[in-house]
């Protein structure tokens, strides 16, 4: 059995790695355990969208900080600032769009409402049935496939040990810390952080914490390379569509349409009928896609709790055990949320308030929820 670590992080996605980096920066000896490759879970299979327009109002301060991290990372993560349009196609959608986006503007996001003519000037290939749109010049994207490589580099540079392709079998609390058993080794740590996304519920249960984590199976698809048809990040006010054309000509299409499967079963399965609806909506918005072929579609797991706010903090009733996850829009916000939790683990006061897991206290038989 190895000498004890100051912190053992289970989960090598964006949030787990960011927390590990902050803890190491504060002088802790840290190890990250990842069952596959660093950044290969939800952090590596999403569309890479960095849009302030799709973030919940209460999370905007965190999104702005997270966005700044990606912008600073720049080319290393394939950062592109292209601006984003969120579209409305009828008066009801336009009213919803205006109400939501003006609130987000007041919260600090550089968003404005523009006319259908202004949309056509910016993106002439879009449907002429647009009634109104919101425009955010800061919106953009990064290359999710580079996420793992970049964080692997940062961990090595910070002296954080990363054990990839290592599955955690058990987590046991002891008087002076925790014993974590993997298939190849038994590790001791004074503190443990669960940042395993959709796999977190089973691990948390080993410590007596069973929050109501649900897992979505989001579908993403990509077209063949086509001539340039759109320059900006495009979304719909319902959130059921995102699309962007990358430098190589492919168009990446998302929108949260659900596949099938569970984290325990491995990768999720694409549901063709739901994918088809997503593609029809994409073609309605961008008619030029009617001649493009889809070359690949895949799924990724996204964990959330009923109020759709993060779990970030101390696991109730378990000193020195922490959980971090369930962040909607976690690709944008993740680096900053991880840093905040890293500060908490170091005993520092986080710059912004965390989202206490205690609100889902299950040892009394039912969760205590907070207002969404």
Description:
This protein has helices at residues 14-25, 42-45, 60-73, 91-106, 116-122, 147-158, 200-205, 272-285, 330-346, and strands at 7-10, 30-33, 49-50, 80-81, 84-88, 112-115, 132-136, 140-141, 161-163, 168-174, 177-182, 186-189, 192-194, 214-223, 233-236, 242-245, 251-254, 294-304, 311-314, 321-325. With 372 residues, the chain is of the alpha+beta class. The chain has two domains: 7-43 and 145-209 and 307-360, FAD/NAD(P)-binding domain; 56-142 and 214-304, D-Amino Acid Oxidase, subunit A, domain 2 (D-Amino Acid Oxidase, Chain A, domain 2). Strands 6-7-5-15-16-17-14-18 form an eight-stranded mixed beta sheet, with helices on both faces. α1 (14-25) runs parallel beside α6 (147-158) and α3 packs across α9 (330-346). It is globular. 49% of the residues are buried.
Any idea what the radius of gyration is? 21 Å
SSE string: EHEHEHEEHEHEEHEEEEEHEEEEHEEEH
Query: Outline, from the CA principal axes?
Result: globular
Major pleated sheet: 8 strands, mixed
CATH architecture of the largest domain: 2-Layer Sandwich
Question: Domains counted in the coordinates: how many?
Answer: 2
Number of strands: 20
Features:
FAD/NAD(P)-binding domain, D-Amino Acid Oxidase, Chain A, domain 2, six-stranded mixed β-sheet, disordered C terminus
Give the arrangement of secondary structure elements:
Elements (H helix, E strand, L loop, with lengths): L6 E4 L3 H12 L4 E4 L8 H4 L3 E2 L9 H14 L6 E2 L2 E5 L2 H16 L5 E4 H7 L9 E5 L3 E2 L5 H12 L2 E3 L4 E7 L2 E6 L3 E4 L2 E3 L5 H6 L8 E10 L9 E4 L5 E4 L5 E4 L17 H14 L8 E11 L6 E4 L6 E5 L4 H17 L26
Parallel strand pairs: 1-2, 1-13, 2-9, 5-15, 13-20
Antiparallel strand pairs: 3-8, 4-8, 5-7, 6-7, 10-11, 11-12, 14-17, 14-18, 15-16, 16-17, 19-20
Helix pairs in contact: 1-6, 1-9, 3-9
């Amino acid at each position: 059995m190895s000498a004890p670590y100051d912190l053992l992080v289970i989960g090598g996605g964006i949030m787990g790695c960011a927390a590990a980096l902050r803890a190491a920066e504060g002088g802790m000896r840290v190890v990250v355990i990842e069952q596959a490759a660093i950044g290969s879970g939800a952090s590596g299979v999403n569309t890479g969208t960095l849009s302030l327009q799709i973030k919940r109002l209460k999370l905007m301060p965190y999104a702005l900080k997270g966005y700044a991290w990606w912008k600073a990372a720049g080319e290393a993560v394939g950062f592109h600032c292209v601006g984003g349009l969120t579209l409305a196609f009828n008066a009801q959608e336009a009213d919803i769009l205006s109400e939501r986006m003006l609130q987000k503007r007041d919260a600090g996001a550089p968003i404005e409402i523009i006319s259908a003519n202004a949309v056509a000037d910016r993106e002439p290939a879009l449907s002429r049935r647009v009634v109104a749109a919101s425009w955010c010049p800061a919106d953009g994207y990064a290359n999710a496939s580079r996420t793992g490589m970049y964080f692997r580099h940062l961990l090595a540079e910070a002296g954080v040990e990363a054990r990839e392709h290592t599955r955690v079998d058990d987590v046991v609390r002891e008087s002076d810390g925790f014993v974590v058993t993997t298939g190849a080794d038994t590790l001791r740590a004074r503190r443990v952080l669960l940042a395993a996304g959709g796999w977190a519920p089973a691990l948390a249960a080993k410590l007596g914490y069973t929050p109501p984590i649900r897992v979505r199976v989001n579908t993403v698809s990509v077209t063949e390379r086509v001539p340039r048809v759109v320059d900006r990040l495009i979304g719909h006010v319902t959130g059921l569509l995102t699309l962007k054309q990358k430098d190589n000509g492919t168009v990446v299409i998302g929108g949260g349409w659900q596949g099938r499967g569970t984290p325990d079963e491995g990768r999720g399965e694409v549901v063709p009928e739901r994918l088809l609806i997503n593609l029809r909506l994409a073609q309605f918005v961008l008619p030029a896609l009617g001649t493009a072929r889809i070359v690949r579609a895949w799924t990724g797991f996204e964990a959330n709790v009923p109020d759709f706010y993060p779990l970030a903090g101390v696991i109730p009733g378990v000193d020195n055990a922490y959980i971090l996850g369930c962040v909607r829009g976690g690709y944008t916000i993740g680096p900053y949320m991880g840093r905040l939790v890293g500060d908490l683990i170091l005993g520092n006061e986080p710059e912004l308030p965390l989202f206490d897991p205690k609100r889902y206290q299950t040892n009394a038989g039912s969760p205590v929820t907070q207002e969404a």
